[in-house]
Amino acid sequence: MSGPVKGGRSAEYTAGHVERLERIKNLQSEGHMLSDIGRLLDGGSDAESEVAPATAWLQHCIAGDVMVWVKAGTSPWRTRQVRAALAEFARRVKEEKGGES
Question: Could you say which DSSP state residue 51 is in?
């Protein structure tokens, strides 16, 4: 899709622009990534249009230079296992960092 009808601080957009933004918003709410949405809206094939929603991930900051990503939506038992392992890992990283000083 082309840019605004008129550019600059007083840019003007058409009804087509607004409709495209609404479609983008709806596809995002369904979990689609922007890269997939762009392909879908620009005439991607039917095979490409059945894109799986994005996978949610949780990030855990272990130390200033260490971050661990864990897939969201696991069972409560598995979540407890992961949290315990991350706590142990964070403890070890902190101990090692303290010993470097």
Answer: P
Name the pLDDT band for 29 (thresholds 50, 70, 90). Answer: confident
Number of neighbouring beta carbons within 10 Å of residue 10: 7
Mean pLDDT on 36-40: 83
Are residues 47 and 66 located together in one domain of the fold? no
CB 41 within 8 A of CB 23: yes
For the stretch 60-90, pLDDT in tens is 888 888 899 888 888 888 889 999 999 999 8
Nearest residue to 48 via CA among 60, 59, 38: 38
Structure token pair of residue 22: 């609404």
Residues 12 and 39 in one domain: yes
75 and 33 both lie in a single domain: no
> Coil, strand or helix: which one is 44?
coil
